[in-house]
Amino acid sequence: MSEFKIMIDTGCDVSESFIKENNLTVMPISYQIDGETHDDGGWQKITSTEFYNKLRSGSMATTTLVNPARFKEKFEEIAKKDESLLYISLSSLLSGTYQNAVLALEEVKEEYPNCKIYCLDSINASAGIWSLVFHAVEKCKDGATLEDTAKYLEEKKNSCFALFTVDDLNHLHRGGRVSKLQAVAGTMLGVKPLLHVSLAGKLEKTGKAKGRKGSLADLVGQMKNALDSKTKSLERIIIGHGDCEEDAKTMVNLIKESYEVKESHIVAIAPSIGVHSGPGTIALFFDGDMTRETYEKNM
């Protein structure tokens, strides 16, 4: 029997098969598009292609935080059963969902002061969180305690990288990531920005590339900057995409030209992130050989 249960939210792009195999609990971050609310936070009412086609046609989408009441209900359920729970959340600087979980936990602890629940701020997004979840599941299966696992992940999250590029700058403009001038000029010139999720949990621009092929190749180049020059094998890579699976497969092949890859996973980026990154996004997630702090200093 597991020492603790693991919960994520839909800001974490984990495959359905992995969720079922490891009995993960998922807290949905609801979203709205074309006047309809999707409480599941994912693809139960709509496919990823349908969602991204709506964005391509000009539909506006928004997301809604998981409110403290929903977290409190789940945490009370765990506390009453005297079980242990590890919640790994979307970055607190990209969403207020983590703060709402902390508020709910504080309330639950007033009634159940000895409850064994830990809220971990991933300081990451999308499948960058899945990278952490892999480690959490491995620790759980090895019999590690909740406390030891949380401590390990608090250190490990600093070397879980999320690098990405987008196909349409206008979605980043709507989210305040680039100016209107940059969005218009970049689109006209075919410039593709390269970004990463910084140690501060924010989306930071790391460069730009000319055209789609150039941006994919440059993402691999940026990954190499986060790895030791002697590294020849990678335990795991995850590629997230905004309805551009063929480009995701291209990314996997590009990486395999330089490294032996033991595991590769391709996932569609869910609406929690996709409403901001837009269709055509390609994101690369992996464990680096350095901390993100060192990587940022070297940029």
Summary, kept brief:
With 299 residues, the chain is of the alpha/beta class.
What is the N-to-C succession of helices and strands? EHEEEHEHEHEHHEHHEEHEEHEEHEH
Count of beta strands: 15
Percent of residues in helices: 40-55%
The average pLDDT value, as a whole number, equals: 90
Measured between the Cα atoms of the first and last residue, the distance is 44 Å
Number of helices: 12
Question: Can you offer a commentary on this structure?
Answer:
The protein contains twelve helices and 15 strands. The model is unreliable at 177-189 (pLDDT under 50). Strands 10-9-8-15-12-14 form a six-stranded mixed sheet, sandwiched between helices. It has 299 residues and is an alpha/beta fold. Helices cover 42% and strands 23% of the residues. The longest helix is centred in the middle third of the chain and has 15 residues, at 97-111.
Task: Considering the chains and any ligands shown, give keywords for the structure.
42% helix; single chain; 6-stranded mixed β-sheet; 299 residues; alpha/beta; 4-stranded parallel β-sheet; 15 strands; globular
Topology readout:
Blueprint: E1 5-9, H1 16-21, E2 25-27, E3 31-33, E4 36-38, H2 48-56, E5 61-63, H3 68-80, E6 84-89, H4 97-111, E7 116-121, H5 127-141, H6 146-156, E8 160-165, H7 169-174, H8 180-189, E9 191-197, E10 203-210, H9 211-225, E11 233-234, E12 237-241, H10 245-256, E13 260-261, E14 264-268, H11 271-277, E15 282-287, H12 292-298
Parallel strand pairs: 1-2, 1-6, 6-7, 11-13, 12-14
Antiparallel strand pairs: 3-4, 3-5, 8-9, 8-15, 9-10, 12-15
Helix pairs in contact: 3-4, 5-6
